[in-house]
Amino acid sequence: MLLPASLLLLAASVPLVTAAPEAEAKRPACRYLPGDRGWPSARDWDKLNTTVGGRLIQGTPVAGVCYGGEANQAACSQLKEEWSLVDPFLDQPVSVVAPYFENNTCSPFGANGKTDDVSQCQLGNLASYAINIDSADTAAAGIKFARDRNLRLVVKNTGHDYLGGSTGRGALALWTHNLKEVTLIPEYKSKHYTGPAYRIGAGVQFMDLYKETARDGLRVVGGSCPTVGANGGWRQGGGHGPLSSSYGLGADNSLEYEVVTAKGTHLPVVSPTENADLFYALSGGGAGNYAVVISAVVKAHRDGPFAGSRLTIVNDGTPGYWTAVQAYLRHLLVLDGIPGFATEALLSNSSFALVMATLPGGDEAAMGAALAPWYADLRAAGMQPVVNETAVQGSYVEHYDEYLGGNVFTRNITIGGRLIPRDLVRDEERLARLTATFREMVAEPDLQIFMLGYNVTKAVAGVPVDRDDFNAVTPAWRDSLLFMNLIIAGSASDPWPKLRDDLARVNRWQDVLRDQTPGGGGYINEGTFDAPQWKADYFGGTYDRLRKVKAKYDPNFVLYTRPGVGADEYAETADGHLCKV
To answer: Stretch 321-327: mean pLDDT, rounded?
Structure first.
């Protein structure tokens, strides 16, 4: 199945490359696809498999179990039940959790509800092959093969990827999912940090990392979703989580990386003092674009008790509901000044839920005092919570499990976002306008807003306040009071045109929010791949410096990701070829 040009253009300013597949000899700037004369032979792939110790895997769609003579109806039935969840995709070498980029080229629901036509199950936008990476040498072999044979190369761990950067038609994927090292460094010493740390393999997921660190009496900054990887897009794109108000973003907690460059060079140490420009790019400048991360060394912090709270109010149709929502946004300015305080909240047209309030080292009294002014606002607005619970947990992993660990994470969503500056919320007129916009947004019945209240200033993050070249975290994070996601929920079997329309809706709302938030920005891990102003949104003032790093370490774009730095210098054709513009 061919991907339509409307999906494959990387930005509105990028012209579509229209060279025909049979004209490949006239366009050497395009990466080869299966069927092209330059595509590696079966013998070439066999040689690569030998080189990497039998770790080469041919790409297959997850739903392939539903098709053909080897169809497994029991497995297919289970897959249909789980199709909207992330779980079936996490251990797959080429599949991703984003339905938009899977493109419905192989659905367990089939065409018109039937799966008897094998031609309806194609790889589509997924990688043709993957290498199960077990070492820097294996990664280097994959890089060399892709570079020498003019193939698209992507890096994939779990496939939590809303923007499609870890997949691509005809690609060779470096699958880092099984790099599971977690090693405690009791006393890491460097110019910028002395204290406990961990070396973490590129495939480690938070659900395992949190348990491992808790056994050592420590905690690390990580994400809210337990199945996300600790060192891929999350960390390299910035990386937020419940501990961000205590210690900054994931990128702020990076001490060093072990990588293989696009030239196949193994760099055991990439740090603020060794290969500092590459460290800068890997720490917030986007994943899969500068080098392949094998492991990272990250800060660890002494564990301790947490106060936590949750609260829910329902929309009873009176003005008080939206008065209470606006009061919450205003009260974030107060919570912003309490060390370590972080919040996660979900807003819809029917209810507002403070999913989790986090106060490290606090008790029930401290949590109550922090939220008391907002409670008073709720009463004044006539809002009575239907849920209102506060408790103390003895460690971070207990706190996490209480509020987030049991959540079911779905993949059938289209997501966008915006960083909301503190200055906006301080201005009552602008705050009222933002609240009215939120109200318009959630009036669409399938749209919800997820709001994350973090303080990630440089002072909190522990990075040099007088340097802009320490890491590439987009500057908008430092000035933001909250990060908000706009989420459109779909069904498990949504057709691709519906997904395309949902993406267009998200982009329209992002444009509205952009107009209201000068000085704001986006978050590259939770946005849209085709945002019209993606350079400003995702990179801000870091883009030019990052482009120089890209030119130094990967001048020929062996690694390519959208919307990564330099992405507009390439475009995808309607048949899936990746071509230099």
So the answer is: 98
Give one word for 333, left, alpha or beta, with left for phi > 0 and alpha for psi -120 to 50. alpha
Residue 13 pLDDT = 29
H helices within 93-135, ranges in order? 99-102
d(CA 523, CA 485): 10
Query: Under CATH, what is the fold of the domain 5-175+553-580?
Result: 3.30.43
Tokens standing for residue 265? 């060079």
Cα torsion for 521, 13, 507, 281, to the nearest 10°?
-40
Tens-place pLDDT, residues 427-441: 999 999 999 999 999
DSSP string, 431-488: HHHHHHHHHHHHTSTTEEEEEEE----HHHHTS-TT-SSS----GGGTTEEEEEEEEE
CA 182 vs. chain centroid, Å, equals 21
pLDDT higher than threshold 60 for residue 501: yes
- Count of CB atoms within 10 A of residue 266's CB? 15
What is the third-level CATH fold of 182-303? 3.30.465
Sheet of strand 291-299, all strands in order from the earlier edge strand to the far edge: 182-189, 194-201, 291-299, 254-261, 266-270
C-beta separation of 284 from 545 below 8 A: no
Q: Tell me the pLDDT band of 236, cut-offs 50, 70 and 90.
A: very high
Domain boundaries, the chain: 5-175+553-580, 182-303, 306-541
Q: 3-class SS at 294?
A: strand
- The Cα 330–Cα 326 span in angstroms is 6
User: CB–CB of 255/188 below 8 Å?
Assistant: yes
Q: Would you state the structure tokens that stand for residue 213, as one six-digit string?
A: 């660190």
Bridge partners of 579, per DSSP, are 30, 571
Q: How far apart are CA 187 and CA 224, in angstroms?
A: 27
Considering the domain 306-541, what is its CATH architecture?
Answer: 3-Layer(aba) Sandwich (3.40)
The whole model's pTM is what? 0.92
